[in-house]
Amino acid sequence: MLIASKVGRSIGILFAVVVCSFPKAASAQSTTTTAPFSASILNTCTNETVDVSGVQTITSNFKFDNSGGLHINFGIVTKGTGVGQVTATNYPFSENDLFNVQATSGAGEFTIRIKMRMRGPGSIDNWDMTQMLRLTLTADGVVTSSIDSTTTNCRG
Q: Which of 77, 81, 101, 152 sits at 20 to 30 Å (Cα–Cα) from 41?
């Protein structure tokens, strides 16, 4: 559930970024902002929902090249702490997200990579999750390749 809403939110952010960057300028534009973050995340290693809060640093780079190609790199780094809803266990939390769009002449490649980590106090309750979504499209909108994978690990 969290992963699907995260990808949906990510695609919405990418769409907003693309729309906002439409004035064609060959020069690169870059911004960095910070924002508070909070979410409830299931630690699948302990089967406990953890309430996480912290700060996100959001960095974006946009560029239209001289050939009209669109290049967007968007990164979110989240650092925070969480508390288990049942056990009140403390969990340091980190997340690193990458959103990338490379589009030329109507064709494009779109990449979303999400990495989350919660460190628990025990030997197997460190939770890692990596999700990757990558699409390559022709100018006609035909998907020529796609990768959609999610992996989770419990580590000591």
A: 101
How many alpha carbons lie under 13 Å from residue 148 in its C-beta half-sphere?
A: 8
Mean pLDDT, contiguous 10-residue spans, the chain (156 residues): 48 47 60 94 92 96 86 94 95 95 87 92 83 89 86 86
Q: Are the C-beta atoms of 102 and 16 separated by less than 8 Å?
A: no
- Do residues 83 and 51 lie in contact, with contact meaning Cβ atoms separated by under 8 Å? yes
The pTM for the full model equals 0.74
User: Both tokens of residue 106?
Assistant: 């109507």
